[in-house]
Amino acid sequence: MRNLKTIKALAFVLAICIFFASCKNFEDFNEIEEIELNGEYAIPLINSSASLQDILDETGQQNDLSGLVIEDDGSMKVTYQNEAITQHMSDFFDEIPSFPLVIPFNSNQIPFDIFENVEVKQFNLKAGTLSFDLESNYEENINVLITIPNLVKDGIAFNVTQTIEYNGNAPATASIPPIDLAGYAFNLPNGELEVYYQANNNSGDNLPINPIMGMAEGWDYEYMEGIWEKDTISLANDTLDIDIFENWVDGNISFADPSLSIMIENSFGFPTMAQIETLKVITGSGEEMILESSLFDTPLYLEYPALNEPNTMKQTVLTFNSTNSNIADVLNSKPTQVIYSITAVINPAENAIVNGFMTDQSTMSIALETELPIHGSASGFEIEEPLESDLSDLDNIEWAEFKIITDNGLPVDLGIQLYFTNDEGEKIDSLYNGYERLTESAAVNNTGDVVNATQKVTLVEVSAERMENIKQSNNLMVGVTFSTVDGGNTPVKILTSHQLDVKVGMKVGVKN
Fold first, then answer.
1. Are residues 161 and 280 in the same domain?
2. Cα→Cα distances 220→158, 226, 309, 312, 324, Å
3. Within the chain, what is the greatest distance between any pair of CA atoms?
4. What is the C-alpha to C-alpha distance for residues 262 and 367, in angstroms, rounded to an integer?
5. Do 357 and 412 lie in a common domain?
6. Does 295 map to a domain?
7. Final residue before a domain boundary, out of 345, 373, 401
8. Among 87, 308, 324, 505, which is most buried by a count of CB atoms within 10 Å?
């Protein structure tokens, strides 16, 4: 008695030959009853139809097809997009370190220059403190009032009072402990901080004292407005992987209208120009191709929110297509990676009167996306993929013959080859002499639309000699080749409604 495993093992040799339909129809083998094999038998295996939509739905349960976009008309495109690289406010500007604040008697204008390259006009604090140390050489009590008119909260300017008490020793000192500045806002139209102190004795006389020493600590802000000097910063340096050509071996494929887009979302409110430092692809053969574009001939200014649009995101999209770049050549070169690096120039025009802003929520995000429409042509495009296999149940099979009838509504010719490999992956034999052509492309009109399906009958013979080679190998590699109609000279459209009908029968000879 021979069981179902023998048939399943032999059918596996042909499984990939059914290509699109195999993903769902080879489940039918589970319903084949056990039979006793001796002599010669003809066994029907498959009689089924599948639209490309059915196949995509089925494979989508096992594979990530999130990059496949199906349009309303049934046309498709494959998209690749990397995870956005996001730059936060803190990536561009260091935290504010603690710094001293000196209040002399004869000056009340102190430059507010805690940020390099920014002339601050407005500064809203969400955290931070101010503390003061006071010193007097007078042999009497001194009452001190400290005022910062352009540091305001709820319409009231910052002020604090403290008495320096004379205890018989000079100089007399006093301290003002840290005062919470959360919610205060600096208004600095001239880029300077106004700070006053008034020192009086109990008689009301206005007296100068030693300079007051202040200390600002833990400052953090939620909004800053000012004039930025020209500066260059790094935005992104990343690689986008494209796996559609990962197993490419030979041949050509051409997409009718591929594109590549750089998408930048920006909530920093100042003029910025993007500079593409690197934008290239690595092809399946390891070569580099540089993207060239007329978009590089003019400055690439980014959209940014106006002063009255805080925490608003603006988007800039740079799309490279066949009309403004060599992207068709680049993406038709079978790329496996897109490598890019981008810098930004702040205030590129060096405008000294234009205010900009940023908030504690300001970010700049950069993502790269390619679109490969399933509309194009292919000529001898070949891929290879290793397969896990167990052919130990073929010992009793002497020879086999498959009859495959395809009614193909896809506008492609499909070919198949099965290689037998050793444990090192080296090819030691193949099932066919060259690729076996399983389908003929459906007929298309001059715009690449399918008008009629095409039928083809294929006999695949596995001779006794080939069967012995199969039995000696525990490893298989499948090769698939496809070409569009007219030898790849006519671009075609593949829709989800296109259908492939497949009938498969098997004849086997077994040992007695």
1. no
2. 18, 16, 21, 21, 45
3. 128
4. 6
5. no
6. yes
7. 373
8. 87
Q: How far is 387 from 382, CA to CA, in rounded Å?
A: 16
Q: Which one-letter amino acid corresponds to residue 90? A: S
Task: Quote the tokens at residue 108.
Answer: 């009340």
Question: How many domains does the chain fold into?
Answer: 3
pLDDT digits (tens, 9 = 90+) for 120-134: 999 999 999 999 999
Q: Each residue of 398-435: pLDDT tens digit? A: 777 777 787 888 777 777 676 777 777 777 777 667 76
For 379, residues 6+ apart whose C-beta sits below 8 A from its C-beta are 251, 252, 253, 483, 484, 487, 488, 489
Beta-carbon contacts of residue 4 (< 8 Å; ≥ 6 apart): 29, 32, 33, 34
Q: Is residue 85 part of a domain?
A: no
Give dist(CA 493, CA 447) in Å, integer.
8
Q: What are phi and psi of 99, to 5 degrees?
A: -150, 150
Angstrom distance (rounded) from CA 422 to CA 389:
12
DSSP helix/strand/coil, 334: coil
Evaluate whether residue 269 is within a structural domain: yes
Question: What CATH number is given to the structural domain containing 257?
Answer: 2.60.120
Asked if residue 481 and residue 394 are part of one domain, the reply reads: yes
Q: Are residues 146 and 49 in the same domain?
A: no
Those residues whose C-beta lies under 8 Å from the C-beta of residue 176, and which sit 6 or more positions away, are 131, 132, 133, 134, 146, 160, 162
Structural domain harbouring 130 = 90-228
In three-state secondary structure terms, 190 is coil
Query: For the chain, how many residues are written?
Result: 512
The pLDDT-based confidence of 24 (bands split at 50, 70, 90) is: very low
Report if residue 253 sits inside a domain: yes
Contact between residue 313 and residue 364 where contact means Cβ atoms under 8 Å apart: no
- What six digits make up the tokens of 97? 């370190």
Q: How far apart are the first and last CA of the chain?
A: 11
Q: Are residues 234 and 220 in the same domain?
A: no
Are residues 100 and 211 both part of a single domain? yes
Mark whether 323 and 414 lie in a shared domain. no
Q: Which of 433, 425, 438 is nearest to 384 (CA)?
A: 425
Closest CA to 445 of 414, 395, 490: 490
